[in-house]
Amino acid sequence: MNNPDKPARAYEAVLDAVEVDLRAGRLKLGDQLPGERALAERHGISRASVRDAIRILDVMGVVRTSTGSGPSSGAVLISRPAAGISTALRMHVASAQLTVREIVETRVLLETWAAGAVSLHDDEARAEGLLDEARDLLEQMERPETGRQEFHDLDARFHVVLASLSGNAVITAMMESLRLAIRDYVSEAITSEAAWGDVVATLKAQHRRIFDAVAGGRGGEAAGLLREHIEWFHREVG
Amino acid sequence: MNNPDKPARAYEAVLDAVEVDLRAGRLKLGDQLPGERALAERHGISRASVRDAIRILDVMGVVRTSTGSGPSSGAVLISRPAAGISTALRMHVASAQLTVREIVETRVLLETWAAGAVSLHDDEARAEGLLDEARDLLEQMERPETGRQEFHDLDARFHVVLASLSGNAVITAMMESLRLAIRDYVSEAITSEAAWGDVVATLKAQHRRIFDAVAGGRGGEAAGLLREHIEWFHREVG
């Protein structure tokens, strides 16, 4: 992938070609990749190297593979950035070369920018759909029967939906790529149910204020509340 | 990896175990993973599945593999988060139907934040190495014999190196994931050699001022110059 940090591997020819074809629009989501033999011939590599490439694309959430050999088998292009990127992110967080602070800094940057960029009027139907989704996540978090792990999952989704209101697909993809890492650092910061009981009431109140500011079109206020919410948790709990 | 979005695969047992061992401190950077046969036995999977897992860890920048069968062969734990994450993110940026405006907004956000976060003193050897790399890219861009396509490639690399001076590996990975998209929209905005001749002198002067501000530790000034540089091009040329 033209990456000066890594030596060339046979399978990289396939990754490069898929990236170039996606960028040029010759490949689209839902399309099927050519078969193993065709790819091996096109790139002058072994079928084993083609299989390596497909497996890597699968882990990255770029293709979905099915087994079998009929016409419906093979690798279909999908796009699940969160799955692929968070796998890599998690490994690096685990080896402690990537700190929670870096994730916190990045989400504060992306989320406050997105809140400031929200326009509820450019595409009202889209904005209303996303606000409904955010409100629904908020209500699920507020239900007394919602368990802690479910809360963390809803919480991370709530933040991604708010960021998507900015209408910027790059920022949204980046937030989605951080979703599982966010869910996990929040979940792991709290080690006892007693501590969680103290924290969750504050989180619910902060979420409600953030949502009201966004839904009321007060982007600057929402940005400030988001920063306060994320940094408070990292400082007091994380 | 406890990921509800993906079906279980045989190789995931190895990825999970490496993550758990890293978190627990049983595996550290520089350690060698157990051999193929040992891993296959431990997880009750085939050696082919173990090889899949190693290859995926290699792409993620979590291990470095060497060929051969001596005692020094095998997979050694390293950590190159930027390389690993950006490989996945790039594929998703490539498949999204992104507008130039979204890319411009995102790079202004990431690059101005990074310029403001640069610390030349936290790790002086690292900062000096990156400044040398940026200076070298600058000098290559300034050579009269550098062709236009080469200039665009150097230009995009220059911006990624500057962002990496922030020391935040998540932001660096996000910038690296945008690198080819940046190179291409800049290249495609200019349709004639005559127009390019007018633009390139301005770009060179802007790059030199940005570099001087960063190298001089004037992060706020560098952030302002970067915003001006990126938005000027998008407004006047793009």
Could you write a compact summary of the structure shown?
The structure is a homodimer. Chain A is mostly helical.
Helical region count of chain A? 10
Coarse shape of chain A:
globular
Main sheet summary of chain A: 2 strands, antiparallel
Question: If you average the pLDDT of chain A, what whole number results?
Answer: 86
Helix content of chain A: 55-70%
Please state how the strands of the largest beta sheet of chain A are arranged side by side.
1-2
Unreliable spans of chain A: 1-7
Order of helices and strands of chain A: HHHEEHHHHHHH
What amount of the residues of chain A lies in strands?
Answer: under 5%
* Structure classification of chain A: mainly alpha
Query: Terminal Cα separation of chain A, in Å?
Result: 36 Å
Fold blueprint:
The structure is a homodimer of 238-residue chains.
Chain A lengths: L11 H13 L11 H8 L3 H13 L3 E4 L7 E4 L3 H14 L5 H18 L6 H19 L5 H17 L4 H21 L3 H23 L3 H18 L2
Antiparallel strand pairs in A: 1-2
Helix pairs in contact in A: 2-3, 4-8, 5-7, 5-8, 5-10, 6-7, 6-9, 7-8, 9-10
Tell me what the structure shows.
- The structure is a homodimer of 238-residue chains.
- Chain A has a two-stranded antiparallel ribbon.
- In chain A, 69% of the residues lie in helices and 3% in strands.
- Chain A is mainly α and 238 residues long.
- The relative contact order of chain A is 0.10.
- Chain A is globular, with a radius of gyration of 21 Å.
- In chain A, helix 2 crosses helix 3, helix 5 packs across helix 7 and helix 5 crosses helix 8.
- The N terminus of chain A is likely disordered.
- The interface between A and B is large, with 61 and 59 residues.
